[in-house]
Amino acid sequence: MTIPTGCRVTDGGLETDLIFHRGYDLPEFAAFPLLDSEDGGATLADYFRAYVEVAIAAQAPVLLETPTWRANRDHAERLGYGAADLDRVNRASVDLLVGLAREREDELVGWSVGGTLGPRGDGYRTDGAVDPARAAEYHRPQIASFGAAGVERVTALTLTEVGEAVGVAWAAADVGVPAAVGFTVETDGRLPDGTTLAEAVAAVDAVAQPAYFLVNCAHPTHVLAGLDDGAWRERIGGLRVNASTRSHAELDEATELDEGDPVALAAAQQPLLEAFPQLGVLGGCCGTDVRHVAAMWGVATS
């Protein structure tokens, strides 16, 4: 198992773990409302503690990223959360993770907390080009909440086109928080709108230059299908792969979890670890849990 020095452990597929392993119903595929109940908060704490254990076992730093992929205006309004509630819950998510890291601070090589945000629309498809300025305005409140709570960085996961990625990077720069921009790809290694990863990275860097990029919510074989030898690969600083080889359309229609095999997933991912020399964050996405991330890091789960 070859993992770049200094790479950080992060978590797996939070929402699929909550739904299929812990029995939660997540309207809007949103985990953040769990912060507002004693049982839900305890479940989230239990979930993230398992990844702290992986980091301790791997003797690697941990990046705990908030359960707030859907904690933006459009999705939250459908769940009864207004602007003040969103600000509160985004800040509370940071406080939860800081507290968990401090529980084991003496055993950890290092730790940090990041704020997670997701796309305004669907994470599996695109409705066309997004205006970057409008995207920046839309995402700025959530990023501002994270900034006020003291996150080290914000990470946008499962973006499907360039305009929204630029807007996120602009908003983060306005707030003064480093941003990681995460794209998802289809089985051919291209974004849902057909853009290649190389093209997407170049287009964002031309006008925004986030701290780094990552790829998430795709099986390693799908990411590999879109690789070339370009220098853009040095801008990929994070990787969160899916357990399943199914397409996004197939996953959308699935009624059972395809969690694959953790050891096989770690092996399938190895070529990507070699392809992305600046990789600094390694975890999972849909269908993965602590077993998959532990296998990626070559450690056993308790």
TrEMBL record:
SUPFAM superfamilies (alphabetical) = Homocysteine S-methyltransferase
Instruction: Please state what the protein is called.
Output: Homocysteine S-methyltransferase family protein
Residue ranges of domain Hcy-binding in the record: 1-300
Q: Does the keyword Ligase apply?
A: no
Q: Which residues cross the membrane?
A: none
Q: Does the keyword Iron apply?
A: no
User: Which keywords does this Swiss-Prot/TrEMBL entry list?
Assistant: Metal-binding, Methyltransferase, Transferase, Zinc
Known PROSITE patterns for this protein? Answer: HCY (PS50970)
InterPro entries the record matches: HCY_dom, HCY_dom_sf
What is the species listed in this Swiss-Prot or TrEMBL entry?
Nocardioides panacihumi
Q: Where does Zn(2+) bind?
A: C217, C285, C286
* The protein's required cofactors: Zn(2+)
- Show which residues constitute the signal peptide: none
